[in-house]
C-alpha cells in the first residue's frame, strides 16, 4: 500500500473510500470474503477494516485476515480491537500480534457487553473500562495509527449527545487520529456530530459509516441494536415495498447513494462502506458516485 499514512489521506482534499468486513465463522464464509476482497481491490480503497467478533470472539481470525491483507494484497488493513472479556495483558498481546503481522492501523473500541449492545457494560476485572484506555495503550506502545468510533445520534448509553462529543474529543486528545461513525440514515445527524466536535476545538477527521438497506429486516435490526433511528422519510419509502426484495434493494442503493452525495457535498473526508462481506452493492454505489465525478 501507498507510503502516505491513512491520516494524511483523510486530511488530503480528495475523498477516501474504505470497506469494512467481518471475520467469517467458517471456511466457506472465508472463501466468500476473499472473493469480495478481490472484487473490491480494483477500486483502490484507502483502507479496508476487519471487525473484532462481538464479545471479543474470533480475534485470531481478525488478526490472521488483516495480516494476510497486509502481506498479500495492495490494500492497507485496519484491525478492530475491543476490550470485551480480555485482561489488559491479553489486549496488549493482540496489539503486538497486529504489529508483528504488519498491521499498523487499529480501530480502538470498547465493544458491546456479552449480553448484546443493550446489556449493561461490565469491564473485565483485570481489563480496561473505556475505549480511551485502549487508545492510550496503543499510543504508549507506539507505531500505530489509531482510529475510534463515533456516533452521529449519540451512543445508546451516552448521557447526552453533547457529552458524547466530549468523549470523542477526549479520545482525540489521548491519541486517536480519526473516527469512523456508526451507521446512520440522515446526513444532518452526521453534520451535527461534526459541528459539536469542531465547536470543541477538535479537528479530528470523522469518516461516515455507510450501510445501504439491502434487506429491510436485517438493517432495521442492526439500526435498533446500535441506537440508530430508522427515520420516517426512509420508512415511508421502504415499508410499502418491503415484500418486493428487488425493489427494496434498488431503493436502498438509491438512498445510500444520495446520502453519500450529500455527505461529500458537505465536506465529509471520505466514505466507509459496511459491506457485510459482499461487494456488489458497494460497487454499484461506487460506480454511481464515480459517474458523478465524486470519487
Ligand atoms: P467508549 O468510547 O468507551 O464509549 C462507550 C460509552 O461510555 C459511551 O456511552 C460513552 O459516552 C461512555 N464513555 C466513554 N468514556 C467515558 C468516560 N471517560 N466517562 C464516562 N463515560 C464515558 N463492536 C465490536 O464488538 N467489534 C467491532 O469490531 C466493532 N466495530 C465498530 C466500528 C465502528 C465504526 C463503530 C461505530 C462501532 C463498532 N463496534 C464494534 C461497536 C462498539 O464497540 C460499541 O458501539 C460500543 O458500545 C462502544 O464502543 P466505543 O469504542 O465507542 O466505547
UniProtKB/TrEMBL annotation:
Belongs to the methylenetetrahydrofolate reductase family. It catalyses: (6S)-5-methyl-5,6,7,8-tetrahydrofolate + NAD(+) = (6R)-5,10-methylene-5,6,7,8-tetrahydrofolate + NADH + H(+). One of its GO terms (cellular component) is cytosol. Its EC number is 1.5.1.54. Its cofactor is FAD. It comes from the Bacteria. The keyword Flavoprotein applies. It comes from Aeromicrobium chenweiae. Pfam families: MTHFR (PF02219). This is Methylenetetrahydrofolate reductase. Pathway: One-carbon metabolism; tetrahydrofolate interconversion; Amino-acid biosynthesis; L-methionine biosynthesis via de novo pathway. The lineage of its organism: Bacteria, Bacillati, Actinomycetota, Actinomycetes, Propionibacteriales. Keywords: Amino-acid biosynthesis, FAD, Flavoprotein, Methionine biosynthesis, NAD, Oxidoreductase. GO terms for biological process: methionine biosynthetic process; tetrahydrofolate interconversion. Signal peptide: none annotated. One of its GO terms (molecular function) is FAD binding.
Amino acid at each position: 500500500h501507498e507510503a502516505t499514512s491513512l491520516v494524511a489521506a483523510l486530511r488530503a482534499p480528495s475523498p477516501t473510500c474504505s470497506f469494512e468486513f467481518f471475520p467469517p465463522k467458517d471456511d466457506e464464509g472465508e472463501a466468500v470474503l476473499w472473493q469480495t476482497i478481490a472484487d473490491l481491490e480494483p477500486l483502490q480503497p484507502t483502507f479496508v477494516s476487519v471487525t473484532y467478533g462481538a464479545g471479543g470472539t474470533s480475534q485470531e481470525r481478525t488478526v490472521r485476515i488483516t495480516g494476510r491483507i497486509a502481506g498479500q494484497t495492495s490494500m492497507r488493513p485496519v484491525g478492530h480491537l475491543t476490550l470485551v472479556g480480555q485482561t489488559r495483558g491479553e489486549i496488549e498481546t493482540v496489539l503486538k500480534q497486529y504489529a508483528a503481522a504488519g498491521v499498523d492501523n487499529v480501530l480502538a473500541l470498547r465493544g458491546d457487553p456479552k449480553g448484546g449492545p443493550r446489556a449493561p457494560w461490565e469491564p473485565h476485572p483485570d481489563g480496561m473500562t473505556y475505549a480511551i484506555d485502549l487508545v492510550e495503550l496503543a499510543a504508549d506502545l507506539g507505531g500505530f495509527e489509531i482510529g475510534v468510533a463515533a456516533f452521529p445520534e449519540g451512543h445508546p448509553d451516552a448521557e447526552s449527545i453533547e457529552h458524547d462529543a466530549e468523549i470523542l474529543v477526549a479520545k482525540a486528545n489521548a491519541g486517536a487520529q480519526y473516527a469512523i461513525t456508526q451507521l446512520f440514515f440522515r446526513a444532518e445527524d452526521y453534520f451535527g456530530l461534526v459541528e459539536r466536535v469542531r465547536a470543541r476545538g477538535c479537528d479530528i477527521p470523522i469518516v461516515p459509516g455507510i450501510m445501504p438497506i439491502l434487506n429491510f429486516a436485517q438493517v432495521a435490526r442492526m439500526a435498533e441494536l446500535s441506537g440508530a433511528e430508522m427515520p420516517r422519510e426512509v420508512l415511508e419509502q421502504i415499508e410499502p415495498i418491503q415484500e418486493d426484495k428487488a425493489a427494496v434493494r434498488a431503493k436502498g442503493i438509491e438512498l445510500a447513494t444520495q446520502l453519500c452525495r450529500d455527505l461529500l457535498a458537505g465536506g465529509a473526508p471520505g466514505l466507509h462502506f459496511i459491506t457485510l462481506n459482499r461487494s456488489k452493492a458497494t460497487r454499484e454505489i461506487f460506480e454511481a458516485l464515480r459517474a458523478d465525478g465524486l470519487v
